[in-house]
Amino acid sequence: MASSEIVHVIDDDAEVRQSLAFLLSTVGLAVRVHASATAFLETLANVQDGCIVTDVRMPGVDGIELQRRLKSMGVALPVHVVVPSITVRGIVNMTAVAAVDAQVAAVQGLEAARP
To answer: How far is it, in rounded angstroms, from Cα 15 to Cα 107?
Structure first.
């Protein structure tokens, strides 16, 4: 990524959001955090280059719906979806909206911690 490009971290969990932002910044990446997909979409007019790292499960607009909306708007930012676990249906849903990647969070207990 060019130095002007930004990784947009979208997650409703503040601790996860800040942890991902910290991790990405330690390797020199510019990061912006967004508390929800809706909050990100509200800033979309100011977004130029970069990519998106988003949680698949969020209240309101989830990661899959975010991808659908971006695709319908013609936004070509790469989207990386973080999921606590993956199913065949989940893979099909992400493929249908052209997800760049689905990262399975291998954190014990994460699945149980999410509503």
So the answer is: 14
> Which residues are CB-neighbours of 53 under 8 A, at least 6 positions away?
7, 8, 9, 10, 20, 24, 80, 82
In tens, the pLDDT along 35-69 reads 999 999 999 988 878 999 988 888 899 888 888 89
**Stretch 64-86: mean pLDDT:** 82
Q: Domain 6-113: give its CATH code.
A: 3.40.50.2300
DSSP string, the chain: --TT-EEEEE-S-HHHHHHHHHHHHTTT-EEEEESSHHHHHHHGGG--SEEEEEES--SSS-HHHHHHHHHHTT----EEEEESS--HHHHHHHHHTT-SEEEE---TTHHHH--
* Per-residue pLDDT tens digits for 90-106: 555 555 555 544 444 43
